[in-house]
Structure formats: structure tokens, C-alpha cells
């Protein structure tokens, strides 16, 4: 009987994914919650069946408030400089936030005048973003993000572009999976840190080698160009807990073999060529992964400090067995996740794509990030699928 207010942010992401289903779902949600009021934050308004919406347009901040916010970030910023920066930012909250954090960043020697000169000289690159109503705002946001981006160390710029793969929230493990090199048995990585969050350089040999009768090429069938190392894996009678492996060199091999064990219970979601893409690592890719990155934590903390990344706390359900109640009692714990604002994410994705055309090494690194991303989430899906179908959990 309590009255509640439910806030749904970034509704435009759901509308972009499937507009019809989103609008039907919102209508069902409103219909079954009579004592609840909904506040939808979106760059475009949905049309909800049998629901009358009240629209409130949030404009940019006033010039005086924008100037005051910038001077709060850095009291050394003069009134004239704050006024110029606010005007360049278009009085847009996101742009003001990025520039304000840059002004407040004690790790850099940037002055307000430095930022003004840089912002006036940068060119916009967010032409594809459909959420902003006009090109002027796109260019303004782009200049502000680029101002912070260009002041990152080169390895942090690469890490930021890699994290642009995530279009939603992600945790530390996912960030580490994309940033770090893949360690394989027998590789020479003893001089690198291998602890949690380590971003060790890849010194391993490729798990897929060109056959003697074929030359390296980018087109054609991967299956015909590369041969797979011999591997064996057997399922125990009690399930998939105990796996016997021999000469398994990569996740691609493990996942394909694991999928083959399911025999009559397969969903055939991954083709042979997709397994090869998970496994394949060319000479150029291995060279491109030699990045001087020390820790995922350093990356996340620094990008958050520059306001290019947000740290958020979200509840996660944990099922615990209670002996007194004789059953499972759900509880919740708070976990830390990260996310890039949609415009910042688009900037990172756009910059990574642009640089991938500059040379072969950049293109190889771009592919490496994408394959790590797929490998990480496919491993999670495979493990969850096996745990659902077999009694013994797969570690």
C-alpha cells in the first residue's frame, strides 16, 4: 500500500534496442503498479499504450550557474576564464562536468587558459550520435571529452579505448579480461605480475599456427587456413567437475571441446569459425599487446578521476542456505561496477575504430580487444549453461 517513485534512467538505450517491446513492457509495468509513479529519463520520449505522459524538458544550465560550478572546481579560475569555458561547453552538464574535473585535477599542470585554447582548436567527431538535437552540442561534447583524453598517458588512452567496448555496466573482472594479455601454459611470463588485476604482457606463442601449405591472409575461411593443436578432454561420470586436459592452449580450444562433450544437449550457438576467432592470435596481435599497463585498478581509478568513467554501486542477490529455516534465504550485497556515459563510450569506440585504420599494429590491437571481450563473456555463458544442465558446477 506504500506509494513509491521508480526512476528509470537511459530509457533511450532500451528504445534503441527494441522500441516496440520496450514500450509494451513499460505499459505492463505501469499497469501492474498502481501505487507507483514513474520518472523516465530519456533523450527521446516513448509512446506507452494507455498511458498519458507528462513531458519535462531539461535545458542546459544558466550561464551564471555554469560559471560558478567551474570556479568551485578550481578557485584559481578567473571569472572571465570560467565564462569562456562555460560558453565553449554550451552550458551542458556533461561537458561542464568533464572540464570541471580537468580543472580540479591536481596531477596535471593544466590551467584554465590551456583548456580554453585546446577546446577552441579541437574538432568534433560525434556526428553519429543521434541523441543530441544539433551538431553544435555534439561538437561541444566531443571537444570536452577529447581535452581530457589527450592528457592521458598513451597506455591509458589505449585502455580507455578498449573499455569503450562496454556499452553498459561492467565489473573489474570484465575490464581485466579485455585489458590483460591471455596467459597460456608454457608461455614465458615469469617476469610479469600474474596476480589479480595484473595486465601482463603477452609473450606466448600463437595457439593457432599457419599450416605449411598456406600463407597468411586476411580473407577466406579461417578453418582452411589454420590447424588446431591436438587436445583431449573427457567428461567424468558425475558431470563436468573433473576435466582431463592435455595440450589445451587457449579458451577457444577449451570451449569447443567442452561444447562437443554436450553431444545431444548442445544449442549449437557457436560455429567452428567462431571458436577459431576466439583462439586465433597473430604475430601482429601479440606484438600489439605489449603494453606497459600495471594494473586494472590503476586504469579504473585514473579514468574515474578524469571523469571519463563512473563508479557505481549496485545490489546483487546472494542465495545463502539457512539451517534454521531449512531452505535458501536470498540476501543482497553491494558490488562495484563501472560504466562510461553513452557519449563518452561512443567517443572511445569511435577513436579506437579511427586509429585501427592507421597501421597494421593498431588494427591488430583493435581486434585483440574485441576477441578478449567475446572470450570473457562467452566463457561466462558457457559455464552458466553447463552448470544449469549438469549437477556438478564447472569451475
From TrEMBL:
<feature type="compositionally biased region" description="Polar residues">
    <location>
        <begin position="227"/>
        <end position="239"/>
    </location>
</feature>
<dbReference type="InterPro" id="IPR027417">
    <property type="entry name" value="P-loop_NTPase"/>
</dbReference>
<feature type="region of interest" description="Disordered">
    <location>
        <begin position="184"/>
        <end position="239"/>
    </location>
</feature>
<protein>
    <recommendedName>
        <fullName>NB-ARC domain-containing protein</fullName>
    </recommendedName>
</protein>
<feature type="compositionally biased region" description="Low complexity">
    <location>
        <begin position="184"/>
        <end position="225"/>
    </location>
</feature>
Amino acid at each position: 500500500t506504500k506509494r513509491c517513485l521508480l526512476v528509470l534512467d537511459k530509457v533511450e538505450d532500451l528504445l534503441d534496442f527494441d522500441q516496440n517491446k520496450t514500450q509494451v513492457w513499460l505499459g505492463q509495468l505501469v499497469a501492474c503498479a498502481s501505487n507507483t509513479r514513474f520518472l523516465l529519463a530519456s533523450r527521446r520520449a516513448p509512446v506507452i499504450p494507455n498511458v498519458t505522459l507528462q513531458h519535462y524538458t531539461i535545458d542546459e544550465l544558466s550561464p551564471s550557474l555554469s560559471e560558478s560550478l567551474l570556479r568551485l572546481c578550481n578557485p584559481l579560475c578567473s571569472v572571465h576564464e570560467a565564462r569562456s569555458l562555460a560558453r565553449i561547453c554550451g552550458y551542458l552538464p556533461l561537458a561542464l562536468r568533464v572540464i570541471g574535473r580537468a580543472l580540479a585535477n591536481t596531477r596535471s599542470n593544466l590551467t584554465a587558459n590551456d583548456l580554453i585554447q585546446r577546446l577552441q582548436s579541437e574538432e568534433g567527431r560525434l556526428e553519429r550520435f543521434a541523441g543530441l538535437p544539433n551538431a553544435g552540442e555534439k561538437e561541444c561534447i566531443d571537444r570536452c571529452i577529447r581535452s581530457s583524453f589527450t592528457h592521458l598517458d598513451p597506455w591509458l588512452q589505449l585502455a580507455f579505448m578498449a573499455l569503450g567496448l562496454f556499452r553498459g555496466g561492467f565489473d573489474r573482472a570484465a575490464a581485466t579480461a579485455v585489458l590483460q594479455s591471455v596467459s597460456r601454459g608454457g608461455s614465458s611470463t615469469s617476469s610479469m605480475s600474474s596476480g589479480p588485476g595484473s595486465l601482463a604482457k603477452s609473450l606466448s606463442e600463437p595457439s593457432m599456427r599457419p599450416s605449411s601449405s598456406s600463407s597468411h591472409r586476411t580473407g577466406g575461411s579461417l578453418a582452411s587456413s589454420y590447424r588446431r593443436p591436438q587436445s583431449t578432454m573427457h567428461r567424468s561420470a558425475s558431470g563436468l567437475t573433473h576435466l582431463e586436459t592435455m595440450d589445451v592452449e587457449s579458451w577457444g580450444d577449451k570451449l569447443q571441446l567442452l561444447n562437443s562433450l554436450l553431444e545431444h544437449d548442445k544449442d549449437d550457438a557457436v560455429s567452428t569459425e567462431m571458436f577459431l576467432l576466439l583462439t586465433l592470435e597473430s604475430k601482429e596481435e601479440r606484438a600489439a599487446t605489449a603494453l606497459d599497463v600495471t594494473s586494472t585498478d590503476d586504469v579504473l581509478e585514473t579514468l574515474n578521476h578524469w571523469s571519463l568513467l563512473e563508479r557505481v554501486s549496485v545490489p546483487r542477490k546472494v542465495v545463502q542456505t539457512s539451517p534454521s529455516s531449512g531452505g535458501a534465504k536470498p540476501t543482497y550485497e553491494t558490488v562495484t561496477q563501472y560504466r562510461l556515459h553513452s557519449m563518452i563510450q561512443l567517443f572511445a569506440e569511435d577513436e579506437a575504430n579511427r586509429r585501427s585504420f592507421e597501421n597494421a599494429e593498431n588494427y591488430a590491437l583493435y581486434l585483440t580487444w574485441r576477441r578478449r571481450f567475446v572470450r570473457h563473456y562467452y566463457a561466462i555463458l558457457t559455464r552458466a549453461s553447463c552448470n544449469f544442465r549438469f549437477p556438478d558446477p564447472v569451475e
